[in-house]
C-alpha cells in the first residue's frame, strides 16, 4: 500500500463523516449533527496528527526542506482547526444556519487541501520515502 492510497482513503472516510453531519444539520437535527460533527472532528484530528507527527517530519527529513509543501499544509491544517472550533460553537449554541455557512467554507478548504495532498504531496512522499510500509504502520499507531 502506498502513502497516497492510505491517506486518500482516510480523506474519503472523513469526507463521509462530514457529509453525514452536514445532512443532519441541514435537516435541523441538531443532536445528530453534533454527534456526526464530533465523529468527523475526531477523525480529522487523527488524520492531521498522522500527517504532522509522522508523514511531514519524514518527508522534511528526506527532502531536507520544511519550507515546501508541508509548510503550506500545516498552515491549512490550522485554518481547519479554527473552523472546527467555530462549527462546534455554532452547534453548541443551536445555530444550524451558522454551522451550515461554516461547513461550506470548510468544505471548499478541504477540497482544495485534499487535492493538493493527493495530487502533489502524497505522490512526492511515495517517491521520496523508502520505507512507506513502516511509515503507514507508524501513522496507524497514532492516537
Helix content class: over 70%
What is the class in the CATH system?
A: Mainly Alpha
Number of strands: 0
Number of domains: 1
> Poorly predicted ranges (pLDDT <50, ≥5 residues)?
none
Number of helices: 5
The sequence of SSEs as H and E is HHHHH
- What about the largest sheet? none
**Radius of gyration computed on alpha carbons:** 16 Å
CATH architecture: Up-down Bundle
Mean model confidence by pLDDT: 96
Class computed from helices, strands and strand pairing: mainly alpha
Could you describe the 3D structure shown?
With 143 residues, the chain is mostly helical. Helices cover 87% and strands 0% of the residues. It has one domain (3-141): nmb1532 protein domain like (Four Helix Bundle (Hemerythrin (Met), subunit A), Up-down Bundle). It is built from five helices and no strands. It is elongated, with a radius of gyration of 16 Å. The mean pLDDT is 96.
Give a short overview.
Helices cover 87% and strands 0% of the residues. It is mainly α and 143 residues long.
Question: Which labels suit this protein?
Answer:
Four Helix Bundle (Hemerythrin (Met), subunit A), single chain, 143 residues, mainly alpha
Secondary-structure map with pairings?
Layout: H1 3-26, H2 30-63, H3 69-92, H4 96-128, H5 132-141
Helix pairs in contact: 1-2, 1-4, 2-3, 2-5, 3-4
Amino acid at each position: 500500500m502506498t502513502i497516497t492510497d492510505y491517506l486518500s482513503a482516510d480523506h474519503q472516510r472523513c469526507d463521509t463523516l462530514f457529509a453525514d453531519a452536514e445532512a443532519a444539520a441541514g435537516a435541523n437535527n441538531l443532536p445528530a449533527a453534533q454527534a456526526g460533527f464530533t465523529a468527523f472532528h475526531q477523525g480529522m484530528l487523527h488524520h492531521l496528527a498522522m500527517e504532522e507527527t509522522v508523514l511531514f517530519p519524514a518527508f522534511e527529513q528526506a527532502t531536507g526542506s520544511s519550507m515546501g509543501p508541508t509548510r503550506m499544509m500545516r498552515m491549512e491544517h490550522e485554518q481547519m482547526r479554527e473552523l472546527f472550533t467555530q462549527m462546534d460553537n455554532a452547534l453548541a449554541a443551536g445555530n444550524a444556519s451558522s454551522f451550515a455557512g461554516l461547513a461550506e467554507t470548510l468544505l471548499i478548504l478541504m477540497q482544495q487541501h485534499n487535492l493538493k495532498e493527493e495530487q502533489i504531496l502524497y505522490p512526492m512522499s511515495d517517491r521520496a520515502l523508502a520505507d512507506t510500509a513502516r511509515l503507514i504502520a507508524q501513522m496507524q499507531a497514532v492516537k
